[in-house]
Amino acid sequence: MTKRDKLYENAISMMESSNPQKESILYHNIYSLKVNGGYPFSSEKDVHELVNFLNSID
Questions:
Q1: Cα-flanking dihedrals φ and ψ of residue 38, to 5°?
Q2: Residue 11 and residue 50 in contact, taking contact as beta carbons nearer than 8 Å
Q3: Is the pLDDT score of 1 beyond 70?
Q4: pLDDT (tens digit, 9 = 90+) per residue, 5-58?
Q5: What pLDDT does residue 21 have?
Q6: Rounded to whole angstroms, how far apart are CA atoms 51 and 1?
Q7: What is the 3-state secondary structure (H, E, C) of the chain?
Q8: What pLDDT, on a 0 to 100 scale, did the predictor assign at position 6?
Q9: What is the pLDDT of residue 38?
Q10: 4, 16, 40, 54: which is deepest, by most CB within 10 A?
Q11: How far apart are CA 47 and CA 43, in angstroms?
Q12: Which residues fall within 8 angstroms of residue 10, CB to CB, at 6 or more apart?
């Protein structure tokens, strides 16, 4: 399992009310989004903050 796979799996497990849109946001921010050649969501802390944000939206 790669680091990005682990980050994604952990993020999905932390979601309080998951839906396809939120899962897509997680996927694209963890796997696809690159800024200046790097991933802005590359640590557990970064992903946890993203999940907290997504959990606050309903």
A1: -130, 165
A2: yes
A3: no
A4: 999 999 999 999 989 999 999 999 999 988 888 888 889 999 999 999 999 987
A5: 95
A6: 21
A7: CCHHHHHHHHHHHHCCCCCHHHHHHHHHHHHHCCECCECCCCCHHHHHHHHHHHHHCC
A8: 95
A9: 86
A10: 54
A11: 6
A12: 44, 47
Q: Are 22 and 16 in contact (CB under 8 A)?
A: no
What is d(CA 58, CA 55) in angstroms, rounded to the nearest whole number? 7
How far is 57 from 33, CA to CA, in rounded Å?
21
* CB contact at 8 A, 30 and 14: no
Assess contact for 7 and 44: CB atoms under 8 A.
Answer: yes
Q: Please give the structure tokens belonging to residue 29.
A: 């921010």
